[in-house]
Each structure stands twice: as structure tokens, then as C-alpha cells.
Amino acid sequence: MPFLSRIKKEFGFNRGTNELDKTDRGEVVPIATNRPKLTVDCKMTPSSSPDKENELNCIDNVAYSTVVPKKVMESSELHAEDNSGRGTKSPSSARGRKGSDMKYSSASPPTRQARVPSAWTISDRCFANGESSSASSPETSFADSYDEQFELYTLDENEASPESRAIIDEMDQIYQSLPMPESYLMSPPKKLQLLPDIVLPSKQTSMSEKVTVPKKNMDSSELLVKQGGREQRGGLNKDGGVESSRVANEPFATRIAGAKTAYDGPRRNVEETFGKGKGPNMNGNRRNSSAPNDSRGISAPREWDMPSEKDTSSMNLTPSTAVTTKRKPLTVQREEEQRNQRVKDAKSSSNERDGRRNLDKRTARLRFADAFTADIMQHRQRQPYLNCGTNHSDKSGSQIQDRGVNGVSIAVRKRPMFDYELDRGDYDVVSIDNTTEMTHDITTVHNCVMHADMKRMYMKPTSYPVTAAFDEHCCDDDIYRHIAEPLVIDAANDGVATILMYGQTGCGKSHTMSGIETRASQGLFQAIDFKFACKPQNDRPMITIQFVELCGSKVCNDLLVKNSGEVKLVDAEDGSVHLLNATSIEVKSPEELLGQIMLAKGRRATEATDMNGVSSRSHAVCQIEIKCKQPGSNRGLLTLIDCAGSERSHDSMYHNSDRQKESAEINASLYSLKECIRARANKNGRIPFRSSSLTRILKESFERDGARLCVIACVAPNATDTEHTMETLKTVAGIVGVDDQIKEEKAHEVSSHLLEAKPTILPPSGWDHEHLKKFLALKKMERVLLTEKHDGKLLMKMSVPQMRAQLFDDRDKELAQKLFDLLRKENDRVTAIQRKERAILKKERKERV
Ligand SMILES: Nc1ncnc2c1ncn2[C@@H]1O[C@H](COP(=O)(O)OP(=O)(O)OP(=O)(O)O)[C@@H](O)[C@H]1O
């Protein structure tokens, strides 16, 4: 049998023989075994002698040739995938001795220069490259010259003939006798680096489990041992999988274990494995030599082709290769995971019938919305004046402010539900009762909670007392008339008045403040006009405005003038705190005042958050000073503060670190504000106003006698924000020291049969006698003569003359007409609400189905 055919049969060549044939040089037969650690590079001398002799020649030459462990053979191995038709060459030429014969033999171990490629490291390769530069043309990169040296072929060890085994054994012996290259031993970096944990996105690497590169620097063997006790040398076999170059107890592994090869980060590892800038293109294919190269014609790993999904499905990457995937920051990964989980939870809600899935409470609230809303409706049915929309229309403004404690009052404004909230199945869990004749109003939050079994539900209503509460039907006029107007009049009369918006982001602080600003501009000038109506024009006070924003804990920016310098807070001699460098503009008309306010607000720092597209990320402080010209008179001061929205950890969960820091600072300043107002309201000694810039600015408001301060807490009604609403209400109740009056009602079970509960608010025709009596008392219709038989249904059937005759002893026509109208109006209101609720329920049910 001809020699080449014999080799082919013996060593199981499945390719490459063509190249051998083609080259017809008859000099190099590269042979690899499927013990991938051994790559035998044979050199044969052309001979016409019998096959046996040829084979012996081959063995002889192999003995002089090289054993190439997988580590240094990856790239060349990959080249084997490329049937480019290039011939194989002697490994010796890789070291710049192209065409020369072997320089060392088993009898004489190689010198440093004659080191076998099996022991080559990066530096050896570079060394070889350097050497080769003298012999090869400068254009010939190391990569190219090296790649051309080897073609690898696999041989099944079990199929190998005794001769083949002899070759392998001999190669092993040669291999073991070779010295460890100095450069290899010296390879650990002098300086150890801490590495970040690397979690590989499974999509890109198709690894079944995450590979985490420990932060600690490890030597490579340590790292490899960690990965299942086998040495993983980071190479890709022709199938794209990782080839284990040698089991741990094999000679090379022993050497590696001894060598202190530091694992200097995945990139370094890749570079050490394949040569700087060299590496597989992840498809297991030979790198295209025309690929972009660095100065030595070697492309950096980041330039390697990324595997297609199909290719990666069978790929098992080690950390060294996996590093080539671009890693997202951990915060971003976490964000994505949490978001995906929430989306998944929401989506799966319709699929899971038994409800035994662990859900976060917000998701659970939406999922069991029908049952919860039915329960809340029942509650409201028992107390028909909740959210009824009177909003103190029967009271004068000062009546509400007089309820305050030591000049501090707390108002709550509930905003309406937004369409997008209704669309996602959210519902109203805040009930306002502002009809009582008590010194405070009640805001009830219906906390919808799941039992631990995630099947049963319970409701835990909590009631918060506040100076005044306004439901979703209130308008800006109501707020101004009852809350702001008395304070504006106070300021016009040389008092110090402060209105402060507080609450969760996106709950309507800026909206409410805008309404107040518009009306206050008018109101202030009206009050001054009124005060100085009979006085000479020259006596009129000078009205100036300053508008600054407080960002974070220290920064204070002027908003009236663009790009003016930073504003400093300085203590003035009279004890007040002045805004140094802040522009002060005199205004002479309400329009001018409002114009300046609008201008300044336009320059305020806002940012889009999950809760609000234009969330204010600073406290806006507008100070309107009323300076009287008469000597000895106090200055009047109206301060309008729109605080930045407070955020709970959930809201800031998706923020970057800057935003989280900013949120923390906002919350800290709001906390110190609360402490100061609380101290002012309770008159309990020192007011810690120095704890933040916000409280420093408000020093006069805290300390001046007769100063009045009103905190308007804005709350969102939706179930998703229950915790935040409760937190806001608890805080404001604490400010005026009524937090001990917060009433947590006993929790009660919510049964699913409530799903079919009737709409809650009853029209007058459904009222019983008691209900009717309460209504008439509320509307101040005490003169109506009611007997036990009178109920809503009966009254709704009466005409005005009948009412005159039956319900009023003096047959008062006006009152009878008023009662008639009131009942019709209430009927219209309730039917409108019922219609709306029915539409919402219908929509929600439809969506759930
Ligand atoms: N009572 C209300 N009636 C109608 N719309 C309202 C009401 N309150 C708030 N909104 C709307 O809600 C959105 C958010 O309100 P706003 O910007 O006032 O919230 P915010 O509390 O100031 O938020 P942030 O603290 O993030 O600045 C706005 O589009 C606003 O018009």
C-alpha cells in the first residue's frame, strides 16, 4: 500500500490527504489524536522504500517533531476547519526556520530557542514571531506564518494501531521531558486585579448555567479545577464545543497546576490562549486572515464574529471565551429581570385559575380587582357621604384654617383616577369624608391585601384625620378658597404665610400649586388694593419675587434669571435667612407676578419617571415679599413651595445611582421638613431648621409668631400606590401631632361572592328614612317635616306643591322647590357615577375575560 494511503487508513484521516497529495512535498504529515493534548507533527522524508520504512521514518521524525497541547493549538486547529487548500509546513518554520529540518531530538531536549510548540505560551509565540521576522517578510504576520504550520486531524485512540500508540507514547515521553518554558512560569502578572463578577447572558452564550468569574484572581488551574475538575483550556473543537485539553492528572495539567499563571481577567485569558488579539471566531472556523488585524495583523477578540444562535446552541464556552460577549451592567440586568418578571406576572394572571402563584402585592391587587372593588363599594354604601363631592362648599375659607394647630394645618387633595390607570385595571381605594362637623376630616385608605395562601383576600381600612380633605371632585377654586386664600390675605397684611405641596411623585402637587399661583397672584394684589384703598398711592408696599430651586442637599439655583450663579443661603442680622445672589424682581401687577412665576417654573429641573412624565426633581421655592414703606412695619412674606415628589424604594428601583441618590436627598430634606413643622406645630422647643436648605429657607415661617403654614398633601387614589398614599397621610398626620388618632380598622375577609355586589351609591329613590334624614341634615334642610313613613322613594314621587303641602308647615314654596331640585340633582349625580362605575367594571371584566 502506498505510504500516504497507509497513513490515511492507519490514523483515520478524513481530510487533508488531498492537501498532502496536492502539495506533493511528502514532507509533513500532521497527525493529531483524539487525546487533544497531543498533536503530532510528523516529518517524513520522501522515500521509495517499502511502506514500513516510510512509517519508521515517520515515527523517527515524529520523535523530533512537536507535541502540541490543545492550548496552543486552538487557532491552528480551527484553521483545520478551513479547507483552504494550503499545504502544511514544518513547525520549525514557525520559529523562523522555514524549510529547515528539525533542530532537536528526543535525545537532546530543546533549548529555549528550540522549545516545542507544546510548551509555547504567548511570549513564546511572540518570541517565535520576532524570530521569524528576520526570516519571513515583514508583511507576514505571526498569525499567518503560525497558522500555516499546522493542520490537525483527529484520530480515535481506540482505533489506533500499535504503531500509532507507540507514536503517541513516545510523544508523551518527549513531551514530559521538555522543560517548562521560562516565560510561561513568569506569566502571572505582577499586579493582581480585582475582577467584577461576570454573568453571561444565556442568549448569547447558550450556556445552561451562568459562569461566574470570581472576583479573586486565580491561577488558571485553580479556575479550571473549579469548573468540574477537568482542565478547560478555552479551546473550541471543530464542533464549536470546548475541548478539554487534558485531564487534570495528565502531565501537562500537572505542570500547569504548578505554574502560577494568574488569571488576569477573561480578555487576558483569551489572549493568552490564542495569542494577543487572536482567537476563534466562535463558529469554530478558522479566522479569516483578511479580518481586521492589529499592528501584527491580529484582530482583537472584540472583532471576532459573534456566533449565530444556531451555532451557539451546542457551544459550551469557558469564561475565557465568554468574555467576548458584551456584558450589561448588573443594575441594568437586574432592572430588566424585575421588569420582565412583572410583565410575566401580569400576563400569567389570566392563565392561572387557582391563584396560588406568588405575586407581589401590587400585581395581586390588580389581579383580584373585582373582589376588592366590590368590598370597597360596600364600605362606601354604608357611609354614603364618602367622596360625595361637597368639599366644604358650605364653609367659609377661614373656618377650615381655624382648625389648624398653632398655625399649622394639613389638607389632603385626592386626585382623580387617570384613564391609563383604569385601563390597566387599577381602582380607587381612597375614600374622603369631609362632611362631618368635627374639627378634622377623615381620609380612609382601603388596603387590599392577600393572605399568605395567595387565594384569600382581606381588607384593612385605615382612617387618617387631617385638617381638611378634598376628594377627586374638588376643583382648584375649592383648594384656593379654603386653604390658600386666608394665607394670602395674611401675607398681604404683613404676615408670614407658607403653602407647601407634599406627596408622592405624580399625584398632583404641581397641578394644585399652579391653581394656587394663578389665584394667589390676583388675590394678593386684591388684598393689598383693599388694604390701601383709602391710603395714598405712595404708601403701597413694594412686591418683589424671588424664585429658586433646591436640588439635592446643597445646590440652590436661581430660576428668575437664566444661568445666574449659584445662590447661597446666608443668615441675615435680623435672624432671617437670605438668598444671596438670588434675583429679586419687583412686580406691579398680578399678571406680571404670574408671568415671572411661569417663567421660573419653565426653568425648573424635571425628569421623566415611571410615575410622571415631567416629574419635578427639585423643590421650587417662590418667595413673594410685601415690603411696607412705613417704618417699623413687618414685611409680609408669602412662600409657595412645590416639593419634589417623595419616592418609595419601589419607585426608585429602576433608577440609576444618580437618581437614587437624588431621591434619597429629596426624602431626607422632606424628613427634616416634617420634623421642623412638627416642632413648630407642637411648640416643643428647638426647631431643627438647619438640617436642610429647604428648612433653612423656611426659618421665618417656623419661628415668627403668628406665621401660618399649610401643607397640602396630594394623594393618588389608585390601589397600586396604596403604600405610598398611606405613608404620605401618616407623615402629614404626624406633622400636626394627630398620628395617634390614626385608626386602623379590623381587617375583614373579602369574599369573592362580592363580585356581583350592586353598585354602591344609591340614588334618592333607594334611600331609607335614616338615609334621607342624613341627606337633609347635610343640605341644611332641617325645616323639612319628616315622619317615619317618608323615605327617598316617596319624596322622589312628590311634586313641588305636594312637598309644600306635606313637608313644610308654612308651605314655603322656595324651600319646597329647593328640596325638589336637591333631590333631582343628587339623583343625576348618583346615576352619572353609577353609569361610570358600571362602564369601568364592564371594561375590566371584558379585559380579564
Ligand atoms: N386634581 C387633578 N385633576 C386633574 N389632573 C391632575 C390632578 N392632579 C394631577 N393631575 C395630572 O397629573 C399629572 C401629574 O401631576 P403633577 O405634575 O402635578 O404631579 P406632581 O405631584 O407635581 O409630580 P412630581 O412630584 O413628579 O413633579 C399631570 O398631568 C396633572 O395634570
Automatic annotation (TrEMBL):
Q: Which UniProt keywords apply?
A: ATP-binding, Motor protein, Nucleotide-binding
Could you say which residues bind ATP here?
503-510
**Which Pfam families does the UniProt record give?**
Kinesin
**Which portions of the chain have biased composition (kind: Basic and acidic residues)?**
7-25, 265-275, 302-312, 333-362
Q: Does the keyword rRNA processing apply?
A: no
Name the segments for region: Disordered.
Answer: 1-25, 76-119, 226-247, 259-362
In this chain, composition skew of type Polar residues spans 282-293, 313-324
* PROSITE patterns listed in its UniProt record: KINESIN_MOTOR_2
Q: Where is the Kinesin motor domain?
A: 407-738
Q: Which InterPro entries match?
A: Kinesin-like_fam, Kinesin_motor_dom, Kinesin_motor_dom_sf, P-loop_NTPase
GO MF term list: ATP binding; cytoskeletal motor activity
Q: Report the family membership.
A: Belongs to the TRAFAC class myosin-kinesin ATPase superfamily. Kinesin family.
Protein name per UniProt: Kinesin motor domain-containing protein
